[in-house]
Specification:
Strand content: 25-35%
Number of domains: 2
Number of helices: 7
CATH superfamily of the largest domain: Spore Coat Polysaccharide Biosynthesis Protein SpsA, Chain A
Shape: elongated
CATH architecture of the largest domain: Alpha-Beta Complex
Oligomer: single chain
Length: 330
């Protein structure tokens, strides 16, 4: 089964020269968090549709087993998928936006199982949001199927009150009917783009089943479109990391003040004091005491080490050492 990541857009609301999917949380670009969730699914192929600064994205993802399709002109999500047509070989495939860094492997697997069981022409993942602003709204038919996805810019005031939104994740069949439908999508919308979301309405009108799987977690399907979204996604990811460490036997004395990036490992019975930041490929042994006011970057800290009011960058600290406060080690 193939997996298509839509990563061609600039992300104008980020107000940045950097492609949106390369903005970072937890020490990694958004798209790498997504790839990390995809990897355990053992899919046959991952295809990233790139466009804006495509060579930069290729370079960042050089260590990943990813194929690339190019959307030279960013004309919408439907047009982006069309660029991947010749790369897709599986009978069914998933489509996901590259700005979903928080989605979990288990949620993707559950959705795939749902879609296969429904035998629908198109399946999509939805979620209820307390504030659905900025997302496409889900309009359901009387039998519970998805009748239409209404983009925010095209929604009436009544439709904007719908809480169920489109998460941007689709399960599709690699059939000629799909590609013909994509070819016929028009530009009659507020953005003047070819919307992938138009497929739901087109299939539904022709009597083809469109199923919507409603996920429970709002956090997982936070699309990062603005700097504010980036901050929120980073907070959620950091909270997950802290909770994982707490459950593995690490003490965090004031968790809300501590930042620990995704690839950091910390041994059992180590205590992390307030206002500590741990980044990059850092490992900390067991029974250490780190903080307060410590920053560690890409370093190896042995077991039993004591560190406070210090900066450690790209170096190693041997077991059972006590580092004087206000030290800078590199």
């Amino acid at each position: 089964m193939d997996f298509v990541i839509l990563a061609a857009g600039k992300g104008t609301r980020m107000n940045s020269s950097k492609p949106k999917v390369l903005h970072e949380i937890g020490g990694k670009p958004l798209i790498e968090h997504l790839l990390g969730s995809i990897d355990p699914l053992n899919l046959s192929r991952v295809i990233a549709v790139v466009g804006y600064k495509k060579e930069l994205i290729r370079s960042v993802l050089s260590d990943w087993d990813v194929d690339f399709a190019v959307q030279e002109n960013q004309r919408g999500t439907a047009h982006a998928l069309q660029q991947a047509k010749d790369k897709i070989e599986s009978e069914t495939f998933l489509v996901v936006p590259g700005d979903l860094p928080l989605v979990k492997t288990s949620s993707l697997k559950t959705f795939i199982d749902f879609a296969k069981g429904k035998k629908a022409e198109l399946a999509l993942l939805t979620v209820n949001r307390d504030d659905p602003s900025g997302y496409g709204r889900i309009k359901r038919s009387g039998n519970g199927g998805v009748e239409e996805i209404i983009e925010e810019q095209d929604a009436s005031e009544v439709e904007k009150k719908i809480k169920e939104i489109n998460a941007g994740i689709y399960f599709m069949h690699n059939r000629e009917a799909l590609w013909e439908e994509l070819d016929s999508i028009d530009l009659e919308n507020a953005q003047g783009e070819f919307y992938l979301t138009d497929l739901a309405k087109r299939f539904s009108k022709k009597g083809r089943r469109v199923s919507g799987f409603q996920a429970k977690s709002q956090d997982e399907f936070l699309g990062v479109n603005t700097r504010e979204d980036l901050v929120l996604a980073g907070k959620i990811l950091n909270r997950r990391k802290r909770n994982s460490l707490l459950n593995s036997g690490v003490t965090l004395t004031y968790p809300e003040s501590i930042v620990i990036e995704s690839d950091v490992t910390i041994g059992q019975d180590t205590t992390i004091e307030p206002f500590t930041i741990i980044r990059g490929e850092t490992s900390i042994g067991s029974d250490a005491k780190i903080g307060p006011h410590v920053e560690i970057i890409d370093s190896e800290i042995g077991q039993g080490v004591e560190l406070s009011h210090a900066v450690v960058k790209g170096t190693s600290v041997r077991d059972n050492r006590t580092i004087e406060p206000f030290s800078f080690l590199k």
